[in-house]
Amino acid sequence: MAKWGEGDPRWIVEERPDATNVNNWHWVEKNASGWSKDKLKELLVGLKITDDQGECEIAELSKIEGEASANNRKAKLIFFYEWEVTGEWKGSLKDGDKIYKGKFEVPNLSEENDPEDIEVTVTCEKSTDEAYTCKEIFRKVGTPIIQQQIAKYIKDLREEYSQGIVLPTRTTGGSTLINTSYSMLKCSFINNIFQNAAKKELNKVITSSEKSNAGVKIRTKILKSKEEFKCNASDLYRALTDPGMVSAFTGSTALLEPETGGKFSLNGGNICGEFIELVPNKKLVQKWRVKSWPEEHYSTVTIELSETEDCTRLNLHQVGIPESEFERTQCGWQNHFWERIKQVFGFGARLF
């Protein structure tokens, strides 16, 4: 084996000390959900909130639902996290011996919201004036304190899960980290996309698009296009079928069931349909429509992937596009799919 820096320059791949994930090209993912739950408990449970009228404390976190992950693609760090946190608080007023209790909720802890935009809703068990005063102490004084703790969670998540996920390259020596800016994508990441709640939502979206006015004859056109991506076919296939990756480049929660007969909903239900055929890393066939199209009208989208020595070629064939929607559909694929995939995952950069 050649020593570091002494490889044959004719080699088309960069030398790596561990010979894995050359150039950090492949999508690498680390699950941060378990760590996040422990970290949120550490930062919030026992947190004291005081002012001149009294003192409150977070007694426990009764529910932490959601997930978090750190991802690397072409040495670019991408963090996904989405949490719903509920807990219980207790407090008392000065010059009083009564303990008041209640609940609080943080419903929107995700990368879509900056820490200072995180909401904290508070309720109390009793409806007395004293209990209300105690609740307001927790809400008014506690909200910015909780936001600060959440900001610390986000900072620690980045620091903890950037370690080792971007692997050393020849230009960085043996270092386990390279200098790179953290990229916070405005998206939500749902790994458990196939849970019943998500399926119900998919059914709701599809059903809402299948109402009356069926059978109206409309003029349609066929769209054919070709595109090249600097990645393996398996990476591009994942970018088109993995809920987390689709959420990343679309910038909103993507609901997908990547199986024959499985449904999908993108961009808040603006695009929806069904998977007709899936051939891993080679082919996708979808029943596909935009919400603004005539009701019950679907096009058929066929996407074929072919891997070459230096890229993966994508051929798109879409039949049944309403004539009035053709140009917008054509631009939509180019601007909101292909260009976004290249930008977010680095599939537009040359590997060789």
Give a quick summary of the entry.
The protein has 352 residues and is of the alpha+beta class. The protein is built from six helices and 14 strands. The protein has two domains: 28-162, Bactericidal permeability-increasing protein, domain 1 (Super Roll), CATH 3.15.10; 193-345, 2-Layer Sandwich (Alpha-D-Glucose-1,6-Bisphosphate, Chain A, domain 4).
SSE diagram, text form:
Blueprint: E1 28-31, H1 33-44, E2 48-51, E3 54-73, E4 76-93, E5 100-110, E6 121-124, H2 129-162, E7 182-183, H3 196-208, E8 220-229, H4 233-241, H5 243-250, E9 255-256, E10 263-266, E11 271-279, E12 283-290, E13 299-307, E14 312-322, H6 326-345
Parallel strand pairs: 4-7
Antiparallel strand pairs: 1-3, 2-3, 3-4, 4-5, 5-6, 8-14, 9-10, 10-11, 11-12, 12-13, 13-14
Helix pairs in contact: 1-2, 4-5
Protein name: Activator of Hsp90 ATPase AHSA1-like N-terminal domain-containing protein
GO biological process, one term: protein folding
InterPro entries: Aha1, AHSA1-like_N, ASHA1/2-like_C, START-like_dom_sf
